[in-house]
Description:
Blueprint: E1 2-3, H1 14-36, H2 57-65, H3 69-90, H4 95-117, E2 127-129, H5 131-145, H6 150-162, H7 164-169, H8 176-181, E3 185-187, E4 190-192, H9 196-214, E5 218-219, H10 220-240, H11 255-259, H12 268-286, H13 293-300, H14 302-320, H15 328-355
Parallel strand pairs: 2-4
Antiparallel strand pairs: 1-5, 3-4
Helix pairs in contact: 1-3, 1-12, 1-13, 1-14, 1-15, 3-5, 3-9, 3-12, 4-5, 5-9, 6-9, 10-12, 13-15, 14-15
Amino acid sequence: MTARLPGRESARLPAIDAVRGIVMVVMTLDHSSSAFNHGRLMADGLATFRPDMVFDPLQFAIRWVTHLCAPSFVLLAGASLALSVTRRQRSGIEGSRIDRDILIRGALLIALDLVWMGWIWRLGLPLQLGVLYAIGVSMIGLIALRRLPAAVVGGLGLAVIAGGDALIAQIDPTTALATATMVPGQVGSIFFLYSFLPWTGIMLIGWAVGMRLAGPGMRVRDWLVLAAIALVTFAVVRGANGYGNAGMPRRDGSWIEWLHVSKYPPSLAYTGLELGIAFALLAAVWRWARPWKPLVVLGQTALFYYLIHAHVLKGGALVLGVYRTEGIAATLAGWLVMVVALYPACHWYLAAKRRHPASVLRFL
């Protein structure tokens, strides 16, 4: 099955939106855990990991399964941007106007992360810049990079991801520039959890994939080839247990140690594993003639959903007096209630967005 994007066709492909919807559902599990789960595991980088840590398998699994979210979200953001830009170019829209809209959207994402999302994760200072910051900065960078051939952009993305360990070894991680770009850390009252450069690498790969979608298209076997390449990369890097693990090698041969990879910053092993899973998901969904509508709706309103769900989850936990005092059962309950409760709101928002395609809602 091949998906193509004729000149007059919508820039959205249902399978892309469906996978993004899956990602949003899985993401909610992690943020429900952040609101209710007193045993939530956060040991995804050198700043939070100690060599003597012993992981509870269930807590580890709940945290690990959600590692898929950020790389998939960034990858699909790059692909969707490529599809959107291609559609607008075919409609005769000037390049300067396209650049302006990309700049507005990127700046808006950074502002939303700083003003609206930044305080909710820690319920105060320091403000935590996350995935919206990384996506926003990466989008702005694509204003210039989008002029390059798609293969070159994808190659740059691969170079950024593969060269992460080497680059980190050459910089002083205590500087503000290093913190904002490569190594998570705090600068003044801002904590950069998603230092943008490694995530930019993932977005550049997404852009290259999106350009392929806009041209000859993708077939199931193409997604499977990408998944195999990414997963083999993970297996080789994690097996060698040296370069590409961002300073977090396996302590033994257990399944937990194989999967306990560095997310902050995203290591080559982490990126290979998660993109491999994402590409495999895309291959699976590509076979659907009509992806399940609720997932498509959530995928098409991902930013709207993201901007609401964490506040509702944490606010609800605080009001009920159970903020980070409960266990896995409460985490699962909050997860399911949140997804079911927000779906009608997302459906309404999508309809409003379609009624007013030229309004400011197009940036959300």
